[in-house]
Amino acid sequence: MYLKGRVWKEKKFWLVECPALQAMTQGRSRKEALAMLADWIRAILDRPDFQLDITARGRSSDEVLVRVHDPRPIVALMIERNRHACGLTLQQIADRVGIKGRAAIKQYETGKHDPGFTQAQKLFRALGYDIQIDLIPIQKRVG
């Protein structure tokens, strides 16, 4: 799973953001800013060993790709952070999705239950977002 972001220089610092996670951080260099985003993700998940790769596309591009090896905690984080950014309660999201009670939403936000694609789509629509899918060929390793 990949998340898109961007990196750019502003005055003496490099800034990097990942809108899907409502995340932004900075560094003194482009490389440090990307490392700070990786550290931020691991810290917010409280998983220092969480597997992810962050790459910036080329020197002239500001596009960043965050590749996560286990999407469940990232989807949970996306649900939680975007719900907070929208100022909605667990119950309000449950009502919008058509779920009785807020417990199921909390289970999705903590990563205890995987919402599956259809339910994730309903959750993100309730938050005012849609899901865009790009299929990216997996590069096979030789040897």
Question: How would you characterize the overall build of this protein?
Answer:
- The protein has 143 residues and is α+β, with helices and mostly antiparallel strands.
- It has two domains: 2-68; 71-126, 434 Repressor (Amino-terminal Domain) (Orthogonal Bundle), CATH 1.10.260.40.
- Helix content is 41%, strand content 22%.
- It has a five-stranded antiparallel beta sheet with strand order 3-2-1-5-4, covered by helices on one side.
- A hairpin with a 2-residue loop joins strand 1 and strand 2 (13-18).
- Helix 3 (90-97) crosses helix 5.
- The longest helix is centred in the N-terminal third of the chain and has 16 residues, at 30-45.
- The protein is globular, with a radius of gyration of 16 Å.
- 24% of the residues are buried.
- The model has no long low-confidence stretch (mean pLDDT 91).
What's a concise summary of this model?
The chain has helices spanning 30-45, 71-86, 90-97, 103-110, 116-126, and strands at 2-10, 13-18, 23-27, 52-56, 63-68. With 143 residues, the protein is α+β, with helices and mostly antiparallel strands.
Give me some keywords for this one.
41% helix; 22% strand; 5-stranded antiparallel sheet; 143 residues; 434 Repressor (Amino-terminal Domain); alpha+beta
